[in-house]
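Q: Structure tokens for this one, please.
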Amino acid sequence: MLITRPNGAITTTINKAVPYIGGVLRAINKYPLAVQMHLPILPHTRAFELATGMKMKMGDFIRCGERGYTLDRQISVRFGVSAKDDALPKRLTDVPQDPADPSTKVPLDEMKRTYYRARGWTQDGRPKVSTLKKLKII
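A: Here is the predicted structure, written as tokens:
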């Protein structure tokens, strides 16, 4: 429904609600190890335990994912990838999603800055040394 009707009532309602849970999500992302429980609506931690035999709470799971993304990016950076390589199809960045509203083009540069800041990367898309140390990559 979110994809087939991007301007529908359900999508609009969800998009209006998401900013209000942003603070909670930011806190969880900033302090993932504080979430030392299983969340019943997200069975991922239990599945991880069943597949590997390793104990995994939600905070550990989030940190594991963060480490994976950052390690992948660090390897890509060593092969020459930078922010200029992070792109979307032109139909998203050049063509408005709603033809009647030109402001519905995807603001890619703004989104990349926000994403890099949330990940603990530089403006050029490189993981910061402090992030690499926090995640025990270096």
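A few notes: The chain has one domain: 35-134. The chain is about 55% helix and 0% strand.
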